[in-house]
Amino acid sequence: MQDLDKLQSEALAAVAAASTLDQLDAARVAALGKKGSITGLMKSLGGMGPDERRAAGAALNAARDRIEGALAAAKAGLETKALDERLSRERLDVTLPSRPEAMGRIHPISQVMDEMAAIFAQMGFDVAEGPDIEDDFHNFNALNIPPEHPARQMHDTFYFGEKADGGRHLLRTHTSPVQIRTMLANKPPIRIIAPGRTYRCDSDMTHTPMFHQIEGLVIDEVTHMGHLKGCLLEFVRAFFEVDDVPVRFRPSFFPFTEPSAEVDIGCSREGGELKIGPGAGWLEIGGSGMVHPNVLRNCGIDPDRYQGFAFGMGVERMAMLKYGIPDLRTFFDSDLRWLKHYGFVPLDVPTLAGGLTR
Ligand code: PHE
Q1: 244-250, Cβ contacts within 8 angstroms, sequence gap of 24 or more
Q2: Coiled-coil annotation: which residues (predicted)?
């Protein structure tokens, strides 16, 4: 019994030192288990006289109670600690989106071309394409722009070397050569749009050497200027999602259309912010006109039987106006922050039914 104090403090020290439930249980067994140190002393009670046993028994019971109390407290502490650890390990942020964040964005140029295609598709237009590398014939001659024509100077053309037949390859300066390719390959009625890249040797604040246009071409037996106006009016209203955009046709000149008109839309400026709709200002969005008889003839179409209209618009310009993008050159900087800001979520495909813009 002289050992009791020592055994008790050893047992309490072991309890205090236990940092896991297993270690704590080992401390319990070492003191209070079948072969434990305190249990051993309990067994010695039998060999004592009644008085001695009473005193020793009371002391042993007190020691056992103290150790059991320490065990219970330590167990509760370790269990709380284990639960806290598990909770922090298994922590779930329920405010996170249920799926991984969609990566990547659709470039505003692609978005706007898709929007335009959706609108024109509704009006019955097919999408046609032509090559970026064209030749004099499709880009100029067939469009009623002969070699000495002053309009050629207006197109700052990137030329390649001479072809075997004396003609030249070039980067198309507009999408109008797709008109020629379409009319050569198809019989009227024709109703197509042709979005795509175009190139001019020009680079400053408002011009980039590569840019995008969308061409439109309608050829039929009864097509007239009223159809052209109605078509573009309808398009502009659908595209800008504004019901009362004023559209103005300003007399102009293109060798491949007669008469020709530049297309302006109405706008206003509110505190420096441009708004498409009725207002004091006008913005040019493209060229248009009735297809010139020479162009029809160049494509083997009888101008006495067929007429049609054509138009061409700048895609960057339309994107800038619709989405408030201030600087043309940023379109081609490949800056991911810009794309994240102005880009579109890939699966939000523009449709007239589902909404062009979200
Ligand atoms: N191709 C002309 C341009 O690039 C635009 C245009 C297309 C004008 C069709 C009339 C008809 O400026």
Answers
A1: 244/277, 244/278, 245/276, 245/277, 245/278, 246/277, 246/278, 248/282, 249/288, 250/284
A2: none
Cis geometry, peptide bond prior to residue 50 (ω within 30 degrees of 0): no
Angle at which helix 315-323 crosses helix 225-240, to 10 degrees, equals: 40
CA–CA distance, 121 with 231 (Å, rounded to integer): 12
Asked whether residue 358 is domain-assigned, the answer is: no
Number of folded domains that form the chain: 2
Q: Whole-angstrom Cα distance, residue 160 to residue 177?
A: 17
pLDDT band at 299 (very low <50, low <70, confident <90, very high): very high
Q: Poorest-confidence range of 55-59, 250-254, 301-305?
A: 55-59
Residue span of the structural domain in which 49 resides? 4-89
**What are the structure tokens assigned to 253, written together?**
């000149």
Mean pLDDT across the chain, nearest whole number?
92
Quick check: CB of 144 below 6 Å from ligand 1? no
> Do 79 and 125 belong to one domain?
no
User: Does some domain include residue 277?
Assistant: yes
CA-nearest residue for atom 4, ligand 1, is 174
How confident is the model at residue 133, as a pLDDT?
Answer: 97
Q: Is 258 annotated as a binding residue?
A: yes
Question: Which atom, in ligand 1's list, is nearest to the CA of 173?
Answer: 4
Q: What is the DSSP track for 209-224?
A: SEEEEEEEEEEESS--
Q: Is 199 in the pocket of ligand 1 (CB under 6 A)?
A: no
pLDDT tens for 202-230 read 899 899 999 999 999 999 999 999 999 99
DSSP 69: H
